[in-house]
Amino acid sequence: MKFGDFMVRIKKELPHVFLLAGEERYYIDHALEAILTQLFPDGGARDGLTKLTGAVDGDKLVGLIETVPFFQPKNVIIIEDTPLFRAAKKPADEEAADAGGDVDDAPDALPDGKRKSAKPTADKKLERLQAELAALPDFSYVIFLMGEKPDKRKKFTKTVEKAGLILEAEPVRAWNINDWLQPKLQRMNKDLDRSAYEYFVNAVSMMQEISLSYLDQEFDKLALFSNARRITKKELVAVFAGLPEVSIFALMDAISEKDAKKSLTLLMRQLADGTYFTVLLVLLARHVRQLYQVRLLQAQGVRGKALAKPLGLHPFIAEKLGKSAMRFDDAQLRRALIDIADADYALKTGRGGNELLEHIVIELCA
Fold first, then answer.
1. Which residue, among 290, 352, 30, has the nearest Cα to 183 in the 3D structure?
2. What is the rounded CA–CA span in Å between residue 257 and residue 251?
3. pLDDT at residue 285 in the model
4. pLDDT tens-digit profile of 70-87?
């Protein structure tokens, strides 16, 4: 279940077991906070939470679940980074580790000389734990946290999914940024005008890594200092212009338009503002590589917004990139990538200066 659907669901009903899993920690943290807020509206009882990490003995966890709370109304157990939901490479050892069963180095010998397997003991613990999670006491809540995708084929994952809710915290990229943006704007009671939206999507597409925590913080600032319902491009520029990778996208646009004069002016401005050549080279290489990928996809008949999925870009950006790519030929883009690699080596070894960057820009705009 995606973050937006998950948040809507827990407002309607709050099950007793959760799995918050995935690479996007922002979603996991906010989902956990929302669950705890509903469980403890006053906030004070949170001090009594039970927190565990890693592999936990199955019977021990069952005992914690069945323990009646004395000084707080609810018994809440948070378990982070447990192997219970991971794919098992070695079934017997993995299940034993999952349920906290002991795998003896030298199990008791059977009459025929064979060794006893420790798996039945681990399996029984796992079965008891699964049965407990399927029918938790009214006073107990269990929240599992993990920073990767769970193995949906495992019985334990299916048990949690049937008895509670699973949040799939997928990492946010430029192409699916709307999954975060629209709910955020709704909570702020704001919206973006068209030029602001286009600027935002362009800005996000230039970010090497999208930090939702950073975006969330900056939009909260906008909400404080903007009285109007609609956020303008000017306001967004004031927020994001300080990020080198965002301010550079005007340079990439100028190169895409093959406007040599404008491109060189913007390049000089970036260098004068103190932008490191490594940042410029990385983003330039990324832009040229995307243009080349678009050329290859267009040769296969993929065009317009259909470019978004194979490139992992927002449809608006993909369509714009597709139009830009038509101004270049494959050989020119291949040469540019080689020139960028050579410039990277020369600049890092002190064998060249900013003239190498100027040469690349001129060749691309030719």
1. 30
2. 10
3. 92
4. 777 888 999 999 888 987
- Say how many domains are in the chain: 2
| Same domain assignment for residues 94 and 195 | no
Residue ending a domain, among 142, 169, 196, is: 169
3-class secondary structure, 320 = helix
Question: What is the DSSP annotation of 239-254?
Answer: HHTTSHHHHTHHHHHH
pLDDT tens digits for range 128-185? 898 999 999 999 999 999 999 999 888 889 999 999 999 999 888 777 888 889 888 9
Domain with 287, as residue range(s), is: 178-365
| Whether residue 206 sits in one domain with residue 117 | no
| Same domain as 320, residue 217 | yes
Task: Answer with the one of 169, 187, 220 that is the final residue of a domain.
Answer: 169
Model confidence, pTM:
0.66
Distance CA 127, CA 58 (A): 9
Question: What is the Cα–Cα distance from 174 to 312, expressed in whole angstroms?
Answer: 7
Write the pLDDT tens digit of every residue in 176-201: 888 889 888 988 899 998 888 988 88
Name the packing angle between helices 3-12 and 178-188 (round to 10°): 50
E-state strands within the chain: 17-22, 50-53, 75-80, 140-146, 165-169, 191-192, 230-231
171: left (phi over 0), alpha (psi -120 to 50) or beta: beta
Residues 55 and 104 in one domain: yes
Q: What is the spatial distance between Cα 130 and Cα 144, in angstroms, rounded to a whole number?
A: 13
Q: What is the mean pLDDT of residues 92-116?
A: 47
Q: How many CB atoms lie within 10 A of CB 132?
A: 22
Q: Are 207 and 234 in contact (CB under 8 A)?
A: no
Q: Do 131 and 258 fall within a single domain? A: no
Q: Say if CB 29 and CB 46 are below 8 A apart.
A: no
CA-to-CA distance for 320 and 299, rounded, in angstroms?
A: 17
In the structure, what pLDDT confidence band is assigned to residue 312 with cuts at 50, 70 and 90? confident
Domain CATH code at residue 187: 1.20.272.10
Output the average pLDDT for the chain.
Answer: 84
SS3 assignment, position 158? helix
Q: Rounded to whole angstroms, how far apart are CA atoms 100 and 125?
A: 8
Same domain, 22 and 101: yes
